[in-house]
């Protein structure tokens, strides 16, 4: 099979195509024939050296496809299943989504509903797992709380808006372009603010009211963290997804 490997920092020229044997799944692993691969900022940031970590071999942590083979101890998946996945660790042979096949632990693989295409499935892993970790695991979000998704038009932002609505939160979002603002509105945010506009933080503060904001999902903490602190309710949390 063909895979893309990256062994040194650089631009797209650092990505090299190699031919390797199709990996063999271990007892608790699943072999997936990939139909679509997720591309996330972390992949390019690691590749160009801005992430503070050596390049992975090969890159890519999420994708979607069809189960080709299962290990002896795999019970919840079978050959032919449509799936998407998100790996906790993409390093090593047989791992990494920039390939025709990938081996994953069975608990990293999830059924892909018939309503979703493989392309849509490949966009679920990193963005939606990140949003879930922020709001549910770390934020302990509860119905009736107010959340501000700061940078809501990106993949993690859209996932956070959708998840916030599902959890019964009052959702405030920001975006910096007319297209982004419209996208956030379409995903169900209660209020959307233009973060390229001077004074938008004061608009958010007025909308949140005296109580303040319970949760902030932050995509650019190096620029926004200081002002975020002035928006917070008592015992609130700022959930930093990206520096």
Automatic annotation (TrEMBL):
Gene Ontology cellular component terms for the protein in this record: cytosol
A GO molecular-function descriptor: NADPH binding
Keyword vocabulary terms for this entry: NADP
Protein name: Uncharacterized protein
